[in-house]
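User: Hi! I have a protein structure encoded as tokens and I'd like to know what sequence might fold into it. I'm fairly new to this, so please keep things simple.
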């Protein structure tokens, strides 16, 4: 008696976008690792559970040095899931895969609703698409362990950001309360982004990849209202009137 053929479930592919941190090391690597260790010490746990892309565009070193860098980051608990800005000749089975063309992706999966109004007649002027929300308001504190990520624009927090919490925004971050955790503004390369807060006690502040940890923040700026902006490749902290 012939046994029935086994049925196999259909193979499905789906596209998803995930946010990864990008590290862009520069030579000399020994000095870059010292700066990395300062960040790691000033904000412990920042890289825990995060996917990291290593952008080697500015790093022109032999393949052995790249392998050594990957090993050093692995010893520090950094999981590198991909490389960017490297030639295919540098890639290999002993390295993470090479990514190309990384960019922000916005997907609207909401099915279109039938319109109750007829479409306007063509008049030679393109109709503007409906405006998209470019800000997020958190009406309350961000508690320890929470992570708020909004890459489409500004984030406003009506409350404090606790130690161990973080807010990551593509634009500016406005906090009507104390910053005791981590705040990253301009995460999509927006160098004009700013950070405002009523009380500055942050573990880490960053704009467009430039950062300060608590050890780097001037003592006279602690505990007061402040604004953080980017001047060249350095963060500038200014006191605001209370």
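Assistant: Happy to help. Inverse folding works backwards from shape to sequence: for each of the 242 positions I chose a residue that suits the local structure. Here it is:
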């Amino acid at each position: 008696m012939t046994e029935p053929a086994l049925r196999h479930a259909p193979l499905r592919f789906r596209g998803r976008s995930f946010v990864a941190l990008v590290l862009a090391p520069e030579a000399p690597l020994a000095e870059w690792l010292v700066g990395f260790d300062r960040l790691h010490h000033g904000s412990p746990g920042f890289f825990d559970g995060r996917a990291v892309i290593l952008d080697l565009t500015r790093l022109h070193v032999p393949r052995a040095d790249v392998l050594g860098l990957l090993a050093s980051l692995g010893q520090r608990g950094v999981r590198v899931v991909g490389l960017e800005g490297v030639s295919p000749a540098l890639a290999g089975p002993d390295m993470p895969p090479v990514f190309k063309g990384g960019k922000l992706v916005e997907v609207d999966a909401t099915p279109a609703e039938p319109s109750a109004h007829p479409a306007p007649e063509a008049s030679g002027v393109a109709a503007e698409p409906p405006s998209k929300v470019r800000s997020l308001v958190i009406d309350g504190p961000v508690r320890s362990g929470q992570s708020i990520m909004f890459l489409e624009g500004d984030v406003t927090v009506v409350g404090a950001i606790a130690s161990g919490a973080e807010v990551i925004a593509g634009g500016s971050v406005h906090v009507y309360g104390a910053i005791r955790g981590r705040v990253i503004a301009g995460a999509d390369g927006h160098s004009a982004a700013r950070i405002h807060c009523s009380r500055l006690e942050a573990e880490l502040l960053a704009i467009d990849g430039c950062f300060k940890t608590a050890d780097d923040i001037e003592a006279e700026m602690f505990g007061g209202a402040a604004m953080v902006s980017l001047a060249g490749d350095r963060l500038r902290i200014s006191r605001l009137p209370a």
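A useful reference point when you look it over: Confidence is low (pLDDT under 50) at residues 103-131. Feel free to ask if any position seems puzzling.
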